Task: structure prediction
Amino acid sequence: MRILVTGGAGFIGSHLIDRLMMEGNEVICLDNFYTGRKHNVLKWIGHPYFELIRHDVTEPIRLEVDQIYHLACPASPVHYQYNPVKTIKTNVIGTLNMLGLAKRIKARFLLASTSEVYGDPEVHPQAEEYWGNVNPIGIRSCYDEGKRVAETLTFDYHRQNDVDIRVVRIFNTYGPRMLENDGRVVSNFIVQALKGVPLTVYGNGAQTRSFCYVSDLVDGFIRLMNSNHTGPINLGNPEEYTILELAQTIQRMVNPDVDIRFEPLPQDDPRRRRPDITKAQKLLDWQPTVPVSEGLRLTIEDFRSRLGVPGTISNTDRVGSV
Ligand SMILES: NC(=O)c1ccc[n+]([C@@H]2O[C@H](COP(=O)([O-])OP(=O)(O)OC[C@H]3O[C@@H](n4cnc5c(N)ncnc54)[C@H](O)[C@@H]3O)[C@@H](O)[C@H]2O)c1
Result:
C-alpha cells in the first residue's frame, strides 16, 4: 500500500514509519521539521519505497496514496504554546487540507487526536463517550480546542463527503526519540538523572500519570486503520503510577546517587487522567504489552546514546517497581 504519514519525522510518526516500512509498504513522510528531525527517518532515506517531503500541512498538497496517517502537530506544551496561532492553524487548516486530499483521492484518513480533548476531566477514567471539560480561552486551548475542531472536521467530512475516517485519542506516550527539551516528565527525569542533577518532582509526587510505550501505540494505530471502526478510540496504558514512583524507578535505573528535589506544584498541573481502553480491547483486540520497566530501559538507552553519557543498566535494575 502507498501510505502518507504527516508529522512523520516526529517521535510517534517515525516509529509508525519504521513499522509501515518493515511491513513492505510505500511510505511518504511529510514534515515541516518544526519538532521533527530528519535523523529520525535517516535509515529509510535512499530506500526505493520511501520518500521524504518538507512541507507544511497548512498549505495544500497533491499526492496519490491509499491511506493517510495525519499526525502533524507539535505535541508538548513548550512547543505548541511557542506559537499558539500556528498551532491552531496546523490543527484546523492542516487537517482541512489533509481531509480535502483524502476526499479527492478516496484515501482512508486517520487523525491522531489526543486525551487533551477531555480537558480537565470530571469523570475518571475517561471513556470515548465523555465530551470533556475544556477551557476555550486558556493557554492550552490552541492545542486541545484545535484537536476538538480537527475531530469535528474529520466527522463532518465523513458524514458530508463519505471520507473513510479513523480517529485515535492518544494518551501519554513515551519512548526513544522523544525530544530532550519537551518538558515531559519521563524525558525530564531521564535527562536529569543522566546529567547527574536532582530529579524535580512537583508537589509531593503523589499525583498519578499513565504511560504507554510507543510500539504499543503504533500497533493500535495500525489495527484501527485496518479495522472497520471509525472511532474515536482511546489508546493508552491504563496503569497509573505516582510521579514519585516514576522518579525513584528512573533514579534506581540510571543513577542511585542523584537526589530527588521537591518543588511547589504548578497551578495548571492536570489532575489524574487515565484511559478507559475497553473499546480498543473489544474492537481491536488491543492492549499495551510493554511493561514500563522495559520501556524505560529502552528509552534510557536511547537518551544515553544521544547525550553521549556512557554506562549501562544492570539486569537487577531492569525489574524496577514500576
Ligand atoms: N506523544 C504523546 O504522548 C501524544 C499524546 C497525544 C497526542 N499526540 C499526537 O500525536 C501526534 C504526534 O505527536 P509526537 O509526540 O510524535 O510529537 P512530535 O512533535 O514529535 O511530532 C509532530 C511532528 O509534526 C511535525 N509538524 C508540526 N507542525 C507541522 C506542520 N504545520 N506541517 C507539517 N509538519 C508539522 C513536526 O515537525 C513533528 O515532526 C501529534 O498530532 C500529537 O498531537 C501525541
Confidence is low (pLDDT under 50) at residues 314-322. The CA atoms of residues 143 and 166 lie 19 Å apart.
